[in-house]
Structure formats: structure tokens, C-alpha cells
Amino acid sequence: MSATESQALPTRQRVVIIGAGIVGNSIAYHLSQLGETEITLIDKGPLPNPGGSTGHASNFIFPVDHSKEMTSLTLESMRQYHDLGVYIECGGIEVARTEERMQELARRVVSARTWGIEPVSLLTPAQIKEMVPFINEELLLGGFSTPAAGVVDSLRAATIMRERAMQAGLTVSANTEVLGLEVQHGAVRGVRTSRGDIAADRVVIACGCWSPRIAAMAGARIPLTPAVHQMIDIGPVPRFADTKGLVEYPIVRDVDLNMYERQDGTSLEIGSYAHRPMMLDPDEIPSLEESALSPTELPFTQADFEDQMESALELMPEIVGDESVGVKYAINGLLSVTHDGLPLIGETPEVHGLWSAAAIWIKEGPGAGKTVAELMVNGEAEIVVFESNIARAYPHQKTRAHVRARAAEGFNKMYGIVHPAEQWESDRRVKLSPYYERQQELGAVFYEAAGWERPQWYESNARLLDEFGDRVTRRESEWEARWWSPIINAEHLAMRERAAFTDLTAFAIFDVTGPGALDVVQRVAMRQMDVPVGRVVYTPVLLPAGGFKADLTIMRLADDVFRIVTGGAWGMSDLKWFADRLPADGSAQIHDQTNAWTTLGLWGPRARDILSSVTSDDVSHEGFSFARCKQIEVGPLTTIASRISYVGDLGWELYVPIEQGARLWDIITEAGLPYDAVAMGAGVYGTTGRLEKGYRAYGAELEGEYDVVEAGMAWGKVKDQDFVGKAAHVAQREAQPAASACTLTVEDHTSKSGVKRYMLGGEPILTRDGEAIVDAKGRRSFVTSAGAGPSVGKHLLMAYLPPEHARVGEELLVQYMGEQYPVTVASADSSSVFDPDNSRVRS
Amino acid sequence: MNVLVCVKRVPLTGGKITLTDDERAIQTRHLGFTVSPHEECGAEEAIRLVDAHGGSSTVLTLGPPEAEEQLRDMMAIGIDRAIHLITDGSEWDPQATAAAIVGAVQAQDEPFDLILFGTESADAGNYQVAIRVATALGLPVVNGIKSIEVVPDGLRCEQEVAAGRDVYLLPTPAVITVKEGINLPRYPSVPGRMRAKRKPVDASQPGPTPARLEMVRLVLPAGSSKQAEILGRGAEAALPVVAMLREIGVLA
Lengths: 843, 252
Known about the structure:
Chain A is of the alpha+beta class. Chain A contains 20 helices and 40 strands. In chain A, strand 39 (about 810-815) and strand 40 form a beta hairpin. The model of chain A has no long low-confidence stretch (mean pLDDT about 95). Chain B is of the alpha/beta class. The longest helix of chain B is centred in the N-terminal third of the chain and has 17 residues, at about 35-55.
């Protein structure tokens, strides 16, 4: 076994991991499990507690989250903690003080069911009292019980993993400060430390709230901010004097007040996310020597905790109100918060070989460690992280100001009731499309898309509500009516009847150019890319194991120019995916054009009439057929028009240099007047239009755990050329899919209380007997997308169903907010409920 | 019995202390604040004496507005009220501090039977203020006390000395400086914390008083690097650990 300090540091390693908290140790362990050797783990602090957030974390885990990815990481972490023997399954209860919270708890039951975390249950105040006898149940309306919740010993887990890795040859060096990172030609080459230099081509930053500072040494960005989480420990509690185990009572999350209370030995720990956001710069964190406790246990600021003390006293008067019970420990603990509340996992886009494993909390530490190790060794991981991929961040999302603004806004929402469509309020208006002022005049309601302000619908289109009358359904329940408008459905109908145009500026656009360009796109894209100039190819991009990395369109603009257009949300991740596959000889380059071009979509049966009225170029079906792109003049503008559609109607995407966008908008607006064409928001483009057509979306139907065959997109033959994921894809084509993406219609919306309810996505699909549906790969069926289908007069859901249920006409149930509603499978493949012959797009 | 205990707000430092750029103060940007352990024991002793014999307890500090935090801390464990002599945060020498405290004591309607101090402040460590206050008020004073008992004709105090304990009997009113170990101070309870918010603080700004000592600058002692010696690993470490515990006097 290697000693920690006496031993000389190796001069060359295959991997250096910086940071010996739960994450760094987990990565070290999993790398050695995967057969990696010559690994050194260093930390500035001593072991086993180097002074980071692992050392003071409250260490409890509630597995139920609305996000599939976070739930997967948490469940895998729980499995590992169990295996390491450091998991105490004490259960946890989220208590509700308001009716709105009761609905949220019902939603959590649904999420638990969706991700297979069972049993869970809703509790009455009396049942809570039985489990937590010292609680004042009179304050509560009910609770959500997760028996699998528990408390871990994260330091012990880290130690065991480190020791196991040391047996496999890991070198560990504590009290070793990183002084610099060596970077050459955009790739990391080594680490300079206070105990000597180590050459290494792969370096992992697992430094928690110090990560930005270490990354900066290499010119990379790990955009997180250290933020204070207040925590006190009171005791000894007389009632806990006889507790046999370390933790016997369930953890209580007083979610309405952003607080938690949990028994720990003879103490009660009280924590809060309710106080004002308090953020530091990583450079401001005191050193180990300067700290009274540890660098991440800052002095407690009593004034910020006054209200929380009163709340805790009110909830647990017997214990908190006991004069003999003292506040023994109180800290302003530091944790890491990001712009969107998710971890930062993966190779940094700035520096090859430099990996980030940051903003990872105790509950996902071991799972994230395993995932990072797998990504480093295999290029993909069992748990596909796309929401947490560090490459997702756009430049503005990496700035200090933005991270701080969003972290502050997100902090108090930690236990909040966050609507799936809820928009951020802080630091908006960073990216304005050239149409912005026009859209404002039309009463646009702006949502944020990849940092852009993008209209979701236009209040000026309220006039359409009268026109379409009963064909536009209203939503009776406040929850579903929130962040939504019936105008979306009216805009949809206007598009289907005449025409509508929509702002697509948020697209990420990049050009792959050069003599080697074809090889690059051919290797990344699943579909044949050696097509004539002027073709538009919609193609899946696969992970090595055949799951979805992306779906996007590629225009061949010239022999050696391919323009890739992908959704804004994952644009930067996709950019890195292509950039990583450029040839070393420089024969192909990639250029990010996202901010150079703007896109306006024009669709509907009158789209051709409108476009032909402003161009002298041939836009007839014969002269400009589907899946083609070409330059056309629109007034004084030279546009690239691409005849494709994500809404299922005739039309084009029109690309112009961004400074000419406003003129394009004006031209199309004016040309649309005779046809009563309307501006339409992303509510149609992203939801209603595509759902009626059964078009899948990345991050919903299309994701790493499902393949092209299951998605129903394995049309055509497999190209001869090699591409990432080909072998797996060929095998998947030959096998029976374990599940197929289906479109379902909701047959009855009426709840027991007589209110019509509309699913929003994430709900489990059940058999008519109310049983969960699980496919042969153990994946549960749940609603991947949900939304109105105004032209078909139905609420539409998409879900993967195993073969026995993936049949048109199959009758099933969807669970929503504690009730079940009948649904019918309307399409069991890529065919659509609206215009199944695709006559419109090809008209 | 009316008891006054005097405390001083000081930074709660870690192993390494850094100074401000002008080297006239400790860098406290990320430090918490506290009082010296002796003073904490003084407050605990005041509470116990009042609990046992009636009367009221008062805490006094001379310090910046932020020192109210220490007053509330003391009231959270049971002190009844506070006197805050507000300064601009600059360091007052023992003579000026004592003069301000004497002024405040004399301004009270009800005299104190006992004025407690810690033996010394945690930062300056001048060991002077209590003696200067006692002298100015014409009161008896004993130092370094580790036991106080109320007896019929005053207070019986024990002072730890090399060979054992010296015992003093003194009449009240009196001034006593206490040493850590006289008692085990309690932790504040949550109700105590909440009550402390509402307890009265009599705040005033002391007038100019003579000061003769001026702190020019602070100098950090030459760094003594921490040495960690690993006594052993696993079971084999047990015997060396026991030997070490004996050596440092934890085990007899």
C-alpha cells in the first residue's frame, strides 16, 4: 500500500486526479476497476478529510427527483453506498404545509413511479406523527414518504474506495497543492504540484468548490460558484439518548420552508436553503491553515438563521424548544452551485484531456465518479449524462455574473415547486434575436432558449381564439395553465390552415469545412452524407453503443462545406462532439456560426404562396423539392432556404446573416398579410406541431438509453461507410426492439373532482390494471413528451412501450397527480396522428 | 446578587493568522468572532451565581457595533441584559478601556455586587483591565480564580498555584478574574437564542478617555511548521497511541 506523503511522486502517470473528496476517490476507484493503471490522486488537504464539502455534508439522500438523469446518478450512488456498507436506510419524509405542496407531493409520487423507486406513499399528518413522534403535525397537511431515503458516511465511503484503489496500485499524495497545469496545443500535459511535477495526458478536476480555480490554471472554465448552506447541530436530545442505531428516525424535509431536520446520534441536525444566497469566489475560500474549522465550514452567521430557528422550533417544539438542548455546532457550509443546478461532468471543451467532475453532491458522488471513469475509459457511460455534460454551457453561461445570478435564483428553489416549464428570471436578455423588437410589439411572451429570448406565443394572436372557438381547448387546472396559453393552440391552427412564421435563432449552427469535411460528417452522422450539394439530411448521431447522442440536420452547401444545424439546448455539446472528431492533420475544420446566422421558419399550406411572392427564384415543388436547400433571393437578401419541417407542413427554414434578420422578418410579415399568416411561438414549433407529426426530440424521446430502432427511425439501409455506433446499430436492427416509441391519445381528462387535467410529461404509463410497464431491458414506460394536438383534437403523449403494448388501439393508463386516466396507442412507429401520409410536407 | 461580566470580541482564528495590509490588525475577512474561553467561563459563572442566589446578570463589552453579536451570544446562554460601549473598532489600550468600563459601572442605578473578567483577553492579553477597574472603583480584586462560592461574609475564591490552591475570602462588591476550567460553559439552546434577540442592550458611546499605549504594528512569529507524526497503522498503532496518551498526560 502506498503511503501518502513519504513516498516520492511519480514523474509520469496515465491519470492524475485532483481532489480527494467523495468524487475524486470514486473516480480513482472506478478507473482502477476498469483496469486503468498509473493513477495518482492528490489533494491539498490531509486525509481522510481534506477539508472540502464532503467533510461537512449532511450526507442524506432522497432518491426521488423529477430529472431522470439525476435520479439515475443518485440510484447508482445509493447502490454503491450500500455495497460499501455505509448506507443507513432510515427513510425520509417531505412534509407539506400548503395545498400546492400536496399537489407537488402527488407529482413526486408520480416521478417515483416513473423511475421505479418504490414503495413510496403519501402520509396523513397522523401517520407522520407516528413515524416522527416529536413533530408538530398540526402544521402539516400531509407528507411524502420515501422509505429508501437514508444517510451515508461519505468520508468513510471515500476512504474505502481510495484504499481499494491503492491495493490496485493507486498512488495517493495528500497535503499536495496544485501550482499549475501544463497545457500544450490545447491538450493537458501535466500537473505541477508543491511536491513535484507529474506528466499526464489526462487530468481530472474533482475539487468541488475550488474547481473553477484549478481549471483556470489551464485556461478552462468550470462554471460553478461556492455558495453557503447553513446547518446547525443541537443536542444532546434526551429522546435520542437511547437510540440504538446512528439514525433511527426518518429525515424530515420541511420543503415549504426550504429546511430539513434529521436525527443524527443524540443530535438533531437542522439545515436550511432558506437564507439569502451567499456566494464566494473560489479564491476567497480561506486556506486550511487559516480556517477555524475547515475551509468549507465558514463562520456561522446567526442573523441569517433567526427565522429558521423559529421555524424549526415550531415544527419540533419538544426537541428544539428544550432548554437543555444546546447548539453545539453551527456552520456556513460551502457547496457548489451551477447556472442550471446540474453537475459539470465530462472533458472540458477548452482543453483536451482535462476533465471536470464538479458540482456533484453527496447523493450523486459515487455514481458520477463511475460515470466519469467510464467516459474516460470507454468514451461513453452506462448512465448517459447529457443534462450534466459540462460542454453544454454557452459562453455567457460560464461567466461569473451569470453563474452567480442563476445560482442565487436557484438556491432558494432547492426544495421549491418548480414547474416543468418554469423560466429563469435573473440575467435574462443576454441574447436578443434580430426580431426581438418586432416580437415585443406583437406582445411576445418570451421564454429562454439557449440564452436567447424566444417567443413562446404572442398575445397579439389572442384574436385567433375567437376565430377557432371550441377547437382551442382551455386548461382548467392552474398547474397546467401555468407557463402556457391557449393562444399556442390557436397559432397552431392558423399555421395548419394558412401559414405561420417562427423565430429559430436559437439553433446552434456550425460548419465543417475542408477537404476532410465529408469524412468527418460521414463518421459522426448515421445517415449517408455523401450526397449531392443542396441536400438536407436529417440524421441521428449515435453513441458508440448505439444510443442517441444527437439528432440534427446537415446541409451540404458545397463539396467541402457541411452546415450542421442542431437544437440550441444541446448545441455546445454537439459542437464538441464534432470538434473532437476532426482529423489531426487539419484537413477539416469546424466553425461555430451560431451567432452569425439567424433562422426564420415559414410553414403552412400558404407558405409557398408567401415565399414566391417575395422571391423570383423557383420555389415550386418541382423546382425546390423536399429535403433540399439552396440560395434564393428574398427582396435584397440572399438567403439559404432549406425545405424541411419539424411541424409537418409545407415550408422552409430561411437562413440569413444575423444583421439582416429584421429585414427578413419585415418582408415575410408583409408578404404574409394577404394570407393572414401569423407569427407563432415555440409552443407550436417545439410541442404541438411536432407531436401531431410524431417527430421525436432529443432529450425527450431521443437519448442515450434508447436506440434508433426503438425510436422507429431505422428507415433506409445502413450506409457502407463506418460511423460511430455502427456495429451496435447493425446489431440493433437485427434484434427485436425492447420498446418502441409510440404516440398515445388521452381519452378522458376528467379527474375525480371533475376538473380536466392535462399531463405535462414524465408520467408513468400503466397497464389497464394499473401495473407499471417495464421492458426487457428493465426500462419503465413513461411519458417522454406531452402536449396538445389541436388539429386532431386530442392531448398527445409519447412513450416507449414494449412490443406487447406497442400496438395501435392498445388501451392503457397514464398516472397523473395521484389519478389514472385512460390512453390509447395511436401510433406505434414513426407514423403520425396528423397527416399520416406526409402529403403536406411534400406538397 | 447583581453580577457584571466583561467580555471582548476577538477573531476566532485558525492555525494560521494573517494580518491586514497595514499590519495593525488580524485579517478577519473570513473569520468568525468569539470571546476568550476565560470570559465565556465568566459569563457561565455569572449565570450560575444568579441562578443560585437571585439578582441579575449583565454582560458588558467595549467594541465595535458588531460586538453586539457577542453580547447576544452571552445572553443566549442566560445573561439577562447587556451594556455595549460602542467604539469605532480601533483597539483601546487597557487604561482607556478600564476608564470607559468604570464610567459605565458608575452610571448604573443599581450597583454590581460582583464584576467578573476573564484573566486576559484572547488577543491583546494585557492582564490589566480588571485590576485597573478594581483600583479605580476602590474594590478588592483577585486573579486567575477557578472557584467562587458565596459564603456568609462575602465570596470564597480559589486560585490555582503551582503547589495547590490559594484560597481568598473577599467582601462584596469585588472584582474577580476567572480562568478557564472554573466551570464548563453551556451551549446556547434555541429558545435561549431567540430570547437573546429580545433582551435589552444599553448601548452608548464612551467619551474620550486617556490612552497611553499605541499599537504600532503586529508581527507574526516565525512560522512553526506543523509536524504530523504517524504513530502506526491499523492495530499496530494501538500501543504507540497509548504511550503517547501517557506522555501528554491524558492517561495516568
